[in-house]
Amino acid sequence: MAMEDPPDSTVAAAAATAEKRESGACIDRQPDTVLHRPVGLIHSGGRGGRTAAAGIRVLKRNMKRNGSRGCMTRKSRFGSRERDWLKSDTQRGCVCLYGATVDPQLPASGPQASSTPQPDLQLVLCSTSTSVEEMSAQRDGHEIYVQLHGDLLRRLEPAERPLQMVYDYLTAMGYADPVRVQQEAANSDLSCLIRFYSERPLNADQLERTLLKGVFSVRKGKTQLHKWAERQVILCGTCLIVASVKDSLTGKMHILPLVGGKVEEVKRRQHCLMFSSAGSQAQTYFVNFDTLTDYQRWHRQASKVVSQTVSLVDLSCYSLEALPEYLFYSQDVTHLNLRHNFMNLLGPGGLLHLPRFSQLKSLNLSHNRLGIFPECLCEILTLTELNLSCNNLHTVPMQVGNLQSLQTLSLDGNHLSSLPAELGALSQLSSLGLSFNNFNHIPAVLQGLSGVDKLSMAGNQVVCLEVCALLSMSHLKHVDLRLNGLRCLKSESPEAVNQLTNLDLRDNCLDSLDLTSVCNLETLNCQRNQLRALTVSGFTLRMLHASCNRLSTVSVYPVPNQLTHLDLSQNLLEYLPDWVCDCKNIEMLDVTHNLLSELHSRLLNSLSLRKLLAGYNCLQRVPDLLDHVPLEVLDLQHNKIGELPEGLFFKALNLKHLNASANALETIPPSGQSDESLSTLQEFYLTRNKLTEDCGALLVGHHNLRVLHIAYNQLLSFPASKLSKLELLEELNLSGNQLKSIPSTVSSCKRLHTLIAHSNHITGFPEILNLPEIKVVDLSYNQLNEIQLPDSLPPTLQELDLTGNSSLILEHKTLNLFSHITTLKLDQKSTTTGDSQNASTPWRHGYSEMRGQRNKLCVSVLAIDRLGDSVEACYGIFDGDRNEEVPRLLQCTMGDVLCEEVQHSSIDSVYMSNIFLTSHRKLGMAGQKLGASALLCYIHHESSEPGGYLSVTVANVGTCQAVLCRDGRPVPLSKVYSLENCAEEMERVKLNKAIITEDNKVSGVTCCSRLLGCSYLAPWVLPKPWVHTEPLSSHDDFLILGNRALFERVSYQEAVGTVQAVRDPHAAAKKLCSLAQSYGCKDNIGAVVVALNIAEDSCTCEPPVDTTGPPPVPLPVPLPVSMTPAPSDTATLSSTSGVVSEFNSETSASEVGSEAGSTASDEHPSSGAAPRPERRCSLHPSTTLCGIIVPASVGLVSHMGVFQRQPSCATFSSKHSDNGLDSDDETPLEGVISNGSKLEVEVDIHCCAFQLRSGAPEGPKDLELEKRGCDYPNRKMRRQNSVVVSSTNGCLLAVCGRESADLKKSPSASSLFGKKLSNGSVVAPEDSHNLIEVALEAPKKKSGYFTAPAQQDPEDQLIVPPCLEQEVREQLKGQSPVVSGPSATSIPPSLKDSGCNQSHPPPFAPNMVPGPGATPITKQVYDTAL
After folding, report:
1. What share of the chain is helix, strand, coil (3-state, %, to 5)?
2. Which of 89, 335, 652, 1026 could be disulfide-bonded to 975 (CB atoms 3.0-4.6 Å)?
């Protein structure tokens, strides 16, 4: 490691200064800072050519889990000499070495978390060429361990280079700039992704399941002949081991097999267990434990062993390098699972000792990084099953032929290209796994393996397959050749291949396929090829799956009378072949997404067909049915059908599901021939037809109906008498009609749990709140004017949406009744200022989120209509599939990360990629095992031209998508990152030797190759996004953002047409979600609609303004107001809401901790970022940067904690308000509706870091504070988001790094500085803590959503009087050379775009206004490169 050795005095002073600086900022910090002098790393190019040892600085602290930035800031890590040394070469950096005080897998949480001892941290300065051996030599030979994603621990080899490993990891994630890689490598948040340990951490749970040992009182036998004696007792594997002497293992060992035996509690003796073996010669031992903890631990582990039916020892995922020596006493072990470890070949307990297990039959060594096939395994002659998958094997030894008993051999996920001939001697081998290797042909050795009936070769490189080659392998019945890039299949030999029954050719490149020679084929999978012609033998064909091709016809001869399942969806079929109608046993037929114009009557009248999917075609009619048709599921959506067969319901008596949405139906057939109906219909979807209220009478006969969707038709009313007869109805959707009321007879539907009736003309609230099972009620966008409520509401009610009812006024009593509802959505009272503000914005948005079958919402939406100077906006959607945690965290953090990253780079692809990579890191522990698809749209001025036209930059990972409507046509802006839709991603994942399961999921987990989170799937799943920038013009009407569930059911063209027909973006988003549900979607659905009004003359942007000349006089700008407080209330939003207890749609917080979303302080500006020219236009005359507004009067206010919020529906708890008052004592705010325990407000998702406005000094105390240059009496500067800004003439002069203040010492200051938790402690937003940890402190809610940290009280303000502004300018100009990067005058004004205007002006604190004689504020500027 090349580094100059700084003088002792300099280093000591730096260490002392750092210690003094941090002793007040971190209460958990230990007081000692030690500087070690390592030996062996020589610097040969130092000052004057002298040689000096490199310095390693060790900071011993009790860190928060995953590393606390509050305890370790960049300024206090190193002295100036160290920082200069690091900046001089990007290949230099520091490695964080954590101690092993606590188990990293057992995170501390709750009130005791702060008092629990945490691992010590050591910072080691080194370069990318520094090896583990060199680092260990300076640390007395200690070894180093690495942990990825909080998972397994691996001991590093002496030649490995830790810093280079971190750099490689970050580069693989997607970072390209070497400077940014160096900065990210020094970030302590990275410890959730890659972490180094100076010693092996102890895992109590792992030790318990691997080995239990102790000295206890033992007695042998059930009689009293034997006495109690102190003996060494060991529980390992499947046996209980008792030594013959105390504290020694040298004597005779008594082995008691436990599998099939018993472990029982001895009630007459405290903490005593009886262990008994199985069999007629059973032995018994009594063990008396000293403590209850030992007793419970041994009882728990022994109970698992005795309950097993086979002698199985499962040591998977334990980071083992060797087996415990005591395990070899368990000679009855037959099954040994060592998957996901780091087993060594040599040493005690290594793989060389595995032959000592004389009865071993099954051995799993997959994912052990072996590198070679251990030849010692070939000596275990009893093996019947061997799994060596994913071990980086290149060859198989010849000795494998010794395993004559082997039946199953798994070699998937390696680098094999050939097999030894000796493998053909394994006569009993029946299953051979060779998937995801490098074979380019089927190995010839298979000809001798007569017992192998299944060949798995998916993910290899077999480009051409000769069917005749399979003739010599008469034993093969199942062949899997998925994902091989197969381009041709030759069948030139006239001889038939009789043995093959199952053939899987999915995801290849075949354009034609002729399998007539495979005459006994039963199952064929050929989805996702490029097939234009398909010919198959039908003698024994049972299943044919050929979807996602280009087929216009399919030839099967003879007629496949045994065919039961046929999938021809997503092809180019204009008609169905005749042989399909002649199949006698067909049960399921899927022909969706074709060009069919008719269905043959023989098909629908088949006596075997039970499921017919014919949606998304060109059908105009459905043929009449015969009596007693067995059809159960019929999907006819998205056709041109004008009417259904008259006798559909009384001839198809088994019909349970019918979807006829998106057709031209004007009526529906009757349910029966008489008043008594035999209909069994349960789900009926009729959305988007031309039905009128007359159809209500025809629904009466469906007594078993549970789901009815009849949205977006022409219903004026619904017959009250008819609705009462649908007693089993559970879900009713009547949206988008012209209903004026919901019949009161809806109260007869006792099982109803979901009522969706938005976008109607309903004036009265329906009588549904007496229903015992009601959960979701959506009556938005109606004409409600009052609500008649019962005395009590059903406890099951979870969501009530009343937005869009302009005449509705809710009383306080009504809101109290709604207090238990998890999600209550109401309108915000508009103000004049807010209306004028919206009028100046050339866009407005609406969103909708709908739950699926799962009772939790896993989709989140981010929407910021104003970002920076009010001509930029940010919209996003996040889909967690089955988890709600990651979408909520991304919703909280991504907006703030965007505002930081746009300051560091002007290149769209760079800052958008960094936004996703930084958000991925900020997920922390939550992102280790969970993930989410994400899409972010950033509308901004394009800075490449002086005109600065508007553009939209879209970045996405996963399956969330965005589409732009331009001249009525959809323009896709995103890329779907799924294995099925992206061939290059499939190849990348294959090259990294991932196992892709048959459902096209990486390791069976996710179908996406790019996600935020799921870091344990790296390098197969990456967070690097697709980035695309599209200029906007007056031809662009709106943007649509949606998740996978939306666009799987609603095409781009239909989505665009749907939104065009609805003026309001919110109503349009709701319609999209309702349509997707009616089309059969069962998952969570999210949609965002952004209406654009980009006029050609709407922006008159000017060239960049020269900031060196006289400052222009800024024009006065009305401050934006979205919530107007009462005259007597000077508090902001944060004063009435302490803990955010539920994120319903767009809520966010700017400070959410390190692992789970601390958003501001630890980001590093790019050193080489090109400045973005200032943008000024007639629409936006104010000069704004980073949320700083300079009005006409020349004043300076640094406002630290104002949140600007935009329309959303969120629930806030007011029990723990920031000002310490009870909710009953606080004055209600106008626009904030309180119900006693929750608040319903309209919010947005961005933090305005600072604001400048005029003010006058009010007192001498304030003047004194201003003279000191601080805003607290203890002379500590308070900084929000770790960015300190000095401004004059709208120019950013200094941006400082994250430096926490000493405010935590004072309870009064802490209440202003941080978030007060429910347990009385105070957590500063600058600290790096996990959002999950914060959520544990919040009051528990039924919703289960994460809580965001509370907003800060905006009472800290610094004011510079007008008379001193010029002096401030001069002094700040004098400090400008201190700032690294661009000079003050060249700082790009685009930095101002990342801020937000506050929602309403902050109140002036009387004690914070300086007098006229206040001295200028001086701020210490620190380098933010590290």
Report:
1. 20, 20, 60
2. 1026
